[in-house]
Amino acid sequence: MKFHYYADTDSLYIDLSKRASNDSRKVAPGVVADFDAEGRLVGIDIDHASKIVDLSSLEAEALPVASVSVTKPSLYHRANRQTGRVPHTASDMTTTTDAVVIGGGLMGTSILYNLAVRGVKGPVLLERETLGSGSTGRSSGVVHLFTDPEEPRARLTLESLRIYRDFAEIVGGGDAGFVNTGFLVMVPGDSAEEAKRHVSSQQAMGISTGIVSREEAQELAPAFDLAEDETFVWEPDAGYGDPSGVALAYSTRAREMGARVVLESPVTDVEIQGGRVVAVVTAGERYETPIAVVATGPWSAVFLSKLGIELPLKPTLAEVIVLRRPMDRVSSHPGGSDRSNGIYFRPEGADLTLVGGNETPGEIDPNAYTQHPRDETVARHWAALNMRMPGMADAEFFKGYTGVYTTTPDRQPVIDSVDGIEGLYVCTGFSGRGFKLTPAVGIVVAELVLDGAATTVDISSMRIGRFRDV
């Protein structure tokens, strides 16, 4: 069998074999090729952080397969790229699989991995672009629990934190990049009693958190300016991780267990017959399956609407800035959730600080939104940080970026089966808190699919029907 690669300056299109991969190796910058036990090429991945592949470095002799040809794109292929049609030498093929996951972000890859762990044979993940190319690649990666006042979400975060802290041993496939910074939550005086009740309820769940005095908080965060009338909550186990790395690790481990990951393959339809899922369709292939899990992030509302399912999911803008610290004044600091000034922040690398806040009001188009924070947001975030860490007034602006949240009216996610459509499941609406829930969400979705109900955590409060109950 001959494999042809068609590429332009943005993407690499691949025809994948259905043989299992036994070996993966880097063959060019941003390009990893997979080979079966006999050394034959069976697939190729573009690095999740790379959208440009230099074909000049991808020579046929770099691949130990005599039948591989690397081809520059013809005018026909460029025209098809512009119209959104991806050329396939095996177009309109039909594949049978036990389950299809739609969406290659954190949730989709975690679900794929957990289905494979539970014994589902050859599950398939379909991603419209590349792994982590939606909300995942622009997540701040924060993991702390004060923002989880509801017990179900707190328990999901607690389970996820347990996995992140020992990710290489529990999951493998790569590094979660988890950094245990601790998190200091600063609460204004008028919210003190609510914060104390919240901490008490979380301690009853076994969460490591507690109220600390102003003096203790100052020792934990010498660079912070702390007011006398504020209440301080310390989370010693909290920190941040690498969202793109986690998605890649879950994908890698799932593929090692026989799963298939297909990139640049937007789903065009979920076929439903007799009240049950029978297939998932892309432009080039039809996947016959009894199970489809929709984990499409900010595209979920539009995607589900095409299936006759209306949910109050709103894509909103997240704006983040990164500052280079003046190391003589602020050499280090823990993570912080500043309820008094309306920001969160965490260290990044050796000398940077990442600063974000609540989502920007209004709904956005996840296919066309600004990639840079507004000037007023940069000024507001920086000014708020200066009030908390006066030394950051001498910081340097390093960069700014934006991402997309998928928000629900109650800020709770939607994790449920769809009434009246057997085999269809929805996992979306994490309202900017997806990363810290990812490992546990993959577990409970696998339980929902395979056992009929989640048992690790009670997720009944995340059902679709709650929006009809209002």
Report the major sheet. 8 strands, mixed
Low-confidence stretches: 1-20, 47-91
User: Going by CATH, what is the homologous superfamily of the domain at 183-236 and 314-407?
Assistant: D-Amino Acid Oxidase, subunit A, domain 2
Number of strands: 26
Q: What CATH architecture label of the domain at 183-236 and 314-407 applies? A: 2-Layer Sandwich
CATH topology of the domain at 183-236 and 314-407: the name is: D-Amino Acid Oxidase, Chain A, domain 2
- CATH class of the domain at 183-236 and 314-407, named Alpha Beta
Q: Give the spatial strand order of the biggest sheet.
A: 12-13-11-21-22-23-20-24
Can you lay out the helices and strands and say which pair or pack?
Elements: E1 3-7, E2 12-13, E3 23-28, E4 31-35, E5 41-46, E6 68-71, H1 75-83, E7 93-96, E8 100-102, H2 106-117, E9 124-126, E10 142-143, H3 151-164, H4 167-170, E11 183-187, H5 192-204, E12 210-212, H6 214-220, E13 231-235, E14 239-240, H7 243-256, E15 260-262, E16 267-273, E17 276-282, E18 285-288, E19 292-294, H8 300-305, E20 314-324, E21 335-338, E22 343-348, E23 352-357, H9 375-388, E24 396-407, E25 414-417, E26 424-428, H10 434-451, H11 466-469
Parallel strand pairs: 1-6, 7-18, 8-9, 8-19, 9-15, 11-21, 19-26
Antiparallel strand pairs: 1-2, 3-4, 4-5, 10-14, 11-13, 12-13, 16-17, 17-18, 20-23, 20-24, 21-22, 22-23, 25-26
Helix pairs in contact: 2-7, 2-10, 3-10
